[in-house]
Each structure stands twice: as structure tokens, then as C-alpha cells.
Design goal:
By secondary structure, the chain is an all-alpha fold. The chain has ten helices and no strands. Helix 4 packs across helix 6 and helix 8 crosses helix 9. The radius of gyration is 19 Å and the shape is elongated.
Length: 204
Amino acid sequence: MTVKERRAREKEELRAEILDAARELFAKEGYENVSMRKIAEKIDYSPTTIYLYFKDKDELCRSVCDETTAKLVKQFDGIVATVSDPIDQLRRAGQAYVEFGLSHPNHYKVTFMGYGLTGPVDQEKLHSQASMGARCFMHLRTIVEKCVQQRKIRAVDVDTTSQALWATVHGITSLLITYPDFPWVGKERLIEQVIDVMIEGLKA
């Protein structure tokens, strides 16, 4: 490995460390209560170092969110590429969404549960059509549209139905993350039931 390659790897590793620290602090304390200095202290660097990677806290928070949704989009890409039936795609996408949230609760809290994302964060930038979040939603919308076109489900308004489905899987994911000590009947069985009811309710 050349000196240039080693430095590039070290820079990427430090950037990832900054994102991990920011994600954890944003999720636990909220965006408004976390400063760049606090993030720097968590990883034993000076705030000046963080500003070499991110111009401000707004950009850092958006990077955390984009990183999260990029991982989820990659999973959706894999589902669409390997599963032919749109109903199966819809089921698999719903399961992947919930499982991702439960496996990465800090990611999910910051990106999808609004932990501290009010106030100074530029919401227009955060939710722009070019964002990874929009790509994530468009995957769901495309699957719903295919279900309608192939008459796998009844003729529904695609946008309304896609948003309703997102609200459903987001709801169960948020509940399981927020109330881990509630006497759930069994996470896998509950998730499967929610997705089954969601899909069966759309069939013609």
C-alpha cells in the first residue's frame, strides 16, 4: 500500500468514526443538544479536525441520514433484482425495512424518527427529491405500481397507498425500538402479522 493510499484509508476511517459518534449522540441527546465540540470530545479529536470533513453540524447530520438510507436502498435494490413477483417484493421490502431499523436503532432514530432533526436543520435540503430518502420511498412506490399494473392488488391510488404502507412499517419499527420492554407476543410473529394484514388488505 502506498503512502497516498494509506492516508486516504485513514481519512475514510476517521470520517466513519465521526459519523458513528454523531449518530449515537444525535439519537441519545437530540440534534439541538449536541455540538461539534461534544462530538469531537467523544472521539478524542479537536473540533477543528471535524470541520475538515464537514462544514457544519447540518451537513454532518445530513451525511448520517444519507448513509443510513443508502444502506436501506442497497437492500431494496437486491430485492428487486432477485425477486420477480411484486407481491413478494413488497413483503420482502417490508421485512427488510423493519429488520434494518431493529438492527440499526441509532441509524433509524436519527433518520426516520426525527430525533433532534427539527430546528436548525434545513428540512428542505434534508428531504429534497435528490436525497437517498426519496430514493428509498421511490422503491416502495415502484413496487406498489407494479402490483397495481399486474393486478396483484386492487386499483388504488399509488401515492396514497405507498405512503400508507410506509407509515405502517415505520409504525411497527418505531414501536419496537421505543418500547423494547413491552410484552410483545414475539417480534418475528408480530412483524409477519403486520405485513400480512397490510398486503392482504390491498388484494382485489
